[in-house]
Specification:
Layout lengths: L2 H23 L4 E6 L3 H16 L3 E2 L7 E6 L4 H20 L4 E6 L5 H10 L5 E3 L7 H10 L4 E3 L20 E5 L1 E2 L10 H5 L3 E2 L2 H13 L4 E5 L16 H9 L6 E5 L8 H9 L6 E3 L7 H7 L5 H14 L4 E8 L6 H14 L3 E6 L17 H24 L5 E9 L6 E6 L4 E5 L8 E9 L3 E6 L1
Parallel strand pairs: 1-2, 1-3, 3-4, 4-5, 5-6, 7-10, 10-11, 12-13, 13-14, 17-19
Antiparallel strand pairs: 8-9, 15-16, 15-18, 16-17, 18-19
Helix pairs in contact: 1-5, 8-9, 11-12, 12-13
Length: 464
């Protein structure tokens, strides 16, 4: 019996437990899943929701529920602080509803110091598990309901990949697909390799089968997910490149759009650029994290490329795929960073012409090499440098966005506009948002839209 079959057995057992609890309550048990962090966390939360619904929970958005699960992120310290703050609120709910269950999972739970703090200060939490054993959620639910006190199940690492379990997708027409897990890069500021483990790629045939199943279920857009998709396939018994996987995905009937993230600049291949260039399905958007434009800082970050190498790569991508949108991540305030280093980063922003950049102030993560570095930059200086960089990023992004005005491009309609229900909100291939007149019957469809007016970071348009 394989692991998926074992877990389906626990799903049946959990169903009986939840059914009995619902009879005692006199109504359905409610659950709330809150996600902190990246697209991979969002995909994991869809798995959690799928299992909770399969065992009989009714999912709601209110945290005053019979079961609340926080799927946590730990990339920056403020993500941890948010979780601690929310736990205080949940404690109040639990005092009013003693049968309430509180579960914590995700990257933050892989840190031993976090587990110790929760043991000491948040003893009302019922279940804690990490990133490596999320597939055991049904089994852990059964254990939680059959035992007293806090249940903790943290794995230091794993080579197991179990994906054939229930999933509750947020959108019926688009979906994320995990193609690999973990990271081998060990950037000196980043805790991800320590909490997500080493790189593990899924077999291409399993990925293709899952995407075919999604296409049959009405999915038209997929996003291939990994900490560094460019490393996909290197550790498989029969190695395959990410570019080769994309070619196979392109052949799947029904899939009209393919996205992926994230790409590390150090190993983005010419083969991948050519596959993107010649594809009619791969979206015209590439997220290419820079982190810093200073070669000195890049070396300290262990990014394994120089400013000049990054610029040459970006130039090549722009030359080969002129209509591509390039977005990035930038960290300000890394230990030892000077004003001159920040100017190097600003220089890269101006030369690459990013369509958007996610700009962060450096956050010291205990357990990473950067946390022990001397020359930590003072908060006031970081804020000053951050504000200067952000202004340039925003100006550049507005200039890039304006270039599309007057064009007619395809948009995937995602939802009714949250501010005006006479409008729908669509996403262009380059990841930009456009709002235009339309009704709910358009949701999930790809339609041509005339980009009438650029509003800085989004468009107003008219369906053609």
């Amino acid at each position: 019996m394989n692991e998926a079959q074992i877990q389906y057995g626990y799903i049946e057992k959990a169903k009986q437990i939840i059914s009995e609890k619902a009879r005692e309550k006199g109504g359905s048990l409610t659950c709330c899943v809150q996600t902190f962090g990246c697209q991979m966390n969002a995909r994991d939360s869809e798995k959690l929701s799928g299992i909770l619904r399969a065992v009989g929970f009714e999912e709601i958005e209110d945290e005053d529920a019979d079961l609340v699960i926080y799927n946590t992120c730990t990339v920056r310290d403020n993500a941890n602080q948010r979780v601690y703050g929310r736990l205080g609120v949940l404690n109040g709910f639990k005092r009013r509803n003693p049968h309430m269950k509180i579960c914590l999972c995700g990257c933050m739970m892989q840190e031993p110091s976090v587990i110790e703090k929760i043991r000491k200060s948040y003893g009302f939490v019922d279940l804690i598990f990490g990133t490596h054993n999320i597939f055991k959620f049904a089994e852990l639910l059964v254990g939680m309901y059959e035992s007293e006190g806090m249940l903790i199940d943290i794995w230091k690492d794993t080579d197991q990949i179990v994906e054939q379990l229930p999933v509750q997708r947020k959108y019926p027409f688009k979906s994320g697909i995990n193609i690999m897990f973990g990271c081998n890069n060990f950037c000196s500021y980043c805790i991800v390799p320590y909490v997500r483990g080493r790189e593990r790629s899924r077999k291409p045939e399993e990925i293709i089968e899952e995407i075919k199943s999604l296409a049959a279920d009405g999915v038209v857009e997929i996003m291939l997910l990994g900490q560094n998709v460019n490393s996909y396939g290197k550790n498989l018994e029969n190695p395959i490149s990410f570019a080769e996987l994309l070619k196979q995905v392109e052949q799947i009937e029904g899939i009209e759009r393919i996205r992926f993230m994230t790409s590390h600049p150090k190993d983005l291949s010419d083969e991948l650029i050519q596959v993107m260039k010649n594809s009619e399905k791969i979206c015209r958007h590439l997220h290419l994290p820079l982190q810093s434009g200073s070669t000195k800082i890049l070396k300290e970050m262990n990014r394994r490329y120089t400013k000049e190498q990054y610029l040459a790569l970006a130039e090549k991508i722009r030359r080969e795929i002129p209509d591509i949108s390039i977005t990035t991540d930038i960290i300000v305030g890394f230990p030892g960073e000077t004003y001159e280093d920040v100017q190097e980063t600003i220089d890269v922003v101006k030369k690459v012409h990013y369509d958007n950049a996610f700009t962060f102030q450096y956050s010291k993560r205990t357990g990473t090499p950067a946390a022990a570095m001397e020359n930590q930059v003072c908060k006031e200086e970081v804020t000053r440098h951050f504000d200067e960089l952000l202004a340039v990023v925003q100006d550049t992004a507005r200039e890039q966005a304006k270039k599309l005005q007057g064009q007619t491009l395809d948009a995937l309609v995602e939802e009714i506009n949250e501010h005006d229900d006479s409008l729908v909100t669509g996403r262009l291939s380059n990841n930009m948002i456009v709002h235009f007149k339309g009704g709910k019957e358009l949701i999930g469809k790809i339609v041509p839209v005339y980009l009438r007016e650029c509003k800085g970071f989004y468009y107003l348009g008219d369906m053609q």
